[in-house]
Specification:
The radius of gyration is 22 Å and the shape is globular. The two termini are 13 Å apart. The protein is of the alpha+beta class. The strands form 3 sheets. The protein has a 7-stranded mixed beta sheet with strand order 11-10-12-14-15-9-16. Strands 1-6-7-8-3-13 form a 6-stranded mixed beta sheet, covered by helices on one side. A 3-stranded antiparallel beta sheet has the order 2-5-4, with no helix packed on it. The protein contains 14 helices and 16 strands.
């Protein structure tokens, strides 16, 4: 197993300074994610003749060009007094970059990687009391002595969700490969407007009867105590690769038994499978564990592809009354909740959240008490090509802190595995993860274990 040694830490700034006075306002949805963070690791092979250190130098130069299109990434958080809302001052203070070396090759590393080892490849620092000097984004470049590269990217969820984080990585890749610079839809201004014009005005009809289902769910998820609860449970992450034939088989199994031709999506089928199996692992004999699904709402609201900010929402899926052995019931329950999401309900929730801004930073903390399934299958991280002919060989996502009951991420798999192939990353208490790896229903699909127990 390769060991990691850290060479240096530096600050990287953009090649074009931002005009003085520019600020990036944060929405109520941004503020709701204040206590969370995102960590992504992309693994690459490198040309065999490449000297170690050359790739790092090249990427260090291209990231400076890319950052010119993302002024909020190089900015710093600012607020006048404790309790006031955050805003990003776009002062081009830079991004923290860590350079590291790994023994062995990237292939050797991937053969034995687990959660703890993988997080060594993606640097993170918690906010300290002098928040004005705290970098909200971090990059770690780890070159392996016998070939290969790991790009670790981390950021506070306050500024970006996994979609935005992936956008930055792909923009960096395009800059490195093609010299193209991506410009995003950033609501930079001198005001405190919390949402870009594309999402306003909200629903202002006098006789409008607001949708309350989503509002009530978030209200019910508010923490019972204002004191943060310490969780000493040891968690681990397993990652399972399902090829296209495996996913098709799961989708067929997840079809309703009423003779209809409805076919669940890959996410719905895999969510049904893992929801059922995790509920069994947790000891439920009747019904399924109540859980929530986390979905990207950009397409539903018609937002521009370059929109930068948080726009993933949670929605509860009730497990009471569902069979603990029929994944079709679980998959259809997930599908039903997804189909009920609509633009008016989301905008009503956002309007409520903006009017109750003091609740923003604690809302998602309550959601984290549940089992969470996050749909990331629309992301295309494997298109982040920094060098011609060298696609990512694997990409991992982590959302922290870990949800108390566990978190499941459904991602696209490498393209060579087929168009419907998916990677399912499951983070659970260690004893439950061991049992899940032994679950007969999951084993019946023969997925490849990319991370976890009994890999070899």
């Amino acid at each position: 197993m390769a060991d990691i040694s850290y060479i240096c830490r530096r600050t990287v700034v953009s090649t074009k300074p931002v005009q003085p006075g520019k600020r990036h306002p944060l929405s109520a949805l941004d503020r709701a994610m204040e206590h969370s963070r995102i960590r992504i690791v992309c693994y690459y092979r490198t040309p065999p003749e490449r000297k170690i250190g050359e790739t790092t130098k090249r990427l260090r130069e291209s990231i400076s060009v890319m950052l010119s299109g993302f002024p909020m990434v190089t900015g710093r958080l600012q607020r006048k007094e404790e309790g006031e809302e955050w805003v990003v001052k776009c002062n081009d203070a830079g991004v923290r970059m860590v350079e590291a070396r790994g023994k062995g090759s990237v292939e050797e590393w991937l053969k034995g990687v687990d959660r703890e080892k993988e997080l060594q490849l993606v640097h993170w620092e918690d906010m300290f009391h002098k928040f004005y000097f705290w970098s909200t984004f971090y990059v770690q470049l780890t070159e392996f002595e016998e070939g290969g590269l790991a790009i670790g990217f981390s950021c506070t969820h306050l500024l970006a969700d996994p979609i935005c984080a992936t956008m930055i990585i792909k923009a960096w890749a395009n800059t490195s490969l093609l010299g193209e610079q991506i410009h995003i839809n950033s609501p930079l201004s001198d005001s405190n407007s919390s949402f870009p014009p594309t999402t306003t005005p909200l629903i202002n009809t006098i006789n409008h009867n607001p949708y309350t289902h989503l509002i009530n769910y978030y209200k019910s998820s508010l923490p019972k105590s204002s004191t943060p609860q310490t969780n000493n449970t040891k968690y681990t992450t397993i990652a399972l690769l399902f090829t296209t034939p495996m996913v098709e088989s799961c989708m067929e199994m997840a079809k309703p038994n009423n003779g209809t031709s409805i076919l669940p999506s890959p996410f719905q089928a895999l969510a049904g499978l893992f929801w059922t199996c995790i509920s069994n692992v947790k000891g439920l004999r009747k019904g399924l564990r109540e859980m929530s699904i986390c979905l990207d709402m950009r397409k539903l609201l018609g937002l521009d592809e370059g929109f930068f900010g948080n726009f993933m929402l949670h929605r509860v899926v009730h497990g009471e009354g569902l069979s603990g052995h029929e994944i079709s019931e679980a998959a259809m329950a997930v599908r039903g909740v997804m189909e009920k999401m609509n633009k008016e309900e989301i905008m009503d929730f956002i309007q409520w959240l903006e009017c109750n801004s003091s609740l923003s930073s604690v809302l998602v903390c309550g959601c984290d008490d549940q089992l969470i399934f996050t749909n990331l299958e629309d992301l295309e991280p494997y298109s982040a090509v920094f060098e011609d002919g060298y696609l990512p060989v694997r990409v991992s996502y982590h959302v922290e802190p870990v949800a108390v009951e566990g978190r499941v991420l459904v991602l696209r798999a490498p393209p060579e595995e087929g168009p419907l192939s998916r990677v399912v990353m499951v983070t659970l208490p260690e004893d439950e993860a061991v049992k899940l790896c032994e679950d007969g229903l999951i084993l019946s699909f023969s997925p490849t274990v990319l991370m976890g127990f009994n890999k070899n």
